[in-house]
From TrEMBL:
Domain CENP-V/GFA: 2-118
Matching PROSITE patterns: CENP_V_GFA
Highest taxon, organism lineage: Bacteria
Family the UniProt entry places it in: Belongs to the Gfa family.
Protein name: Aldehyde-activating protein
Keywords: Lyase, Metal-binding, Zinc
Length: 131
């Protein structure tokens, strides 16, 4: 079991599955949503994710039709995204985890959209767009 929480602590959650792959997304929307070079996420099963507190503080922004980015309305922490076309999955923002994880598999996506000032210095697979 993994747990996590937002910056202010109002929202906390539990995840009843392991994370086997981390996805670093460098697309323009993820850069804006995080305010930094890339978004670090993991594809998780929606039914393995349980909100423990703070449901009333969750806000959602649709960055594209059918794509919802959920975040804490108090502190602004991005928590996960959900897609209407893929209701069984969430994309968890793994920087909010309490539990240390370090899966072997990590990939970069939308590298073609990365910020000009960002230098990628690892050997993980890199995809120009999605994968
Ligand atoms: Zn918060
Ligand atoms: Zn992205």
């Amino acid at each position: 079991m993994l747990t996590g929480h937002c910056l202010c602590g109002r929202i906390s959650y539990r995840l009843d599955q392991d994370i086997e792959r981390i996805i670093f997304c460098h697309c323009e929307k993820c850069r804006r949503a995080t305010g930094t070079a890339f978004n670090s996420a993991a594809l998780i099963d929606a039914d393995k994710f349980t909100l423990l507190s703070g449901k009333e503080s969750i806000k959602s922004f649709s960055s594209s039709p059918g794509v919802h980015r959920l975040f804490c309305g108090e502190c602004g922490s991005p928590l996960y995204s959900a897609r209407d076309a893929q209701p069984q999955s969430y994309r968890l923002r793994i920087g909010t985890l309490d539990t240390p994880i370090n899966p072997e598999e990590k990939i970069h996506i939308f590298v073609a959209s990365k910020a000009a000032w960002e230098t990628l210095c690892d050997d993980y697979p890199k995809h120009d767009a999605s994968f």
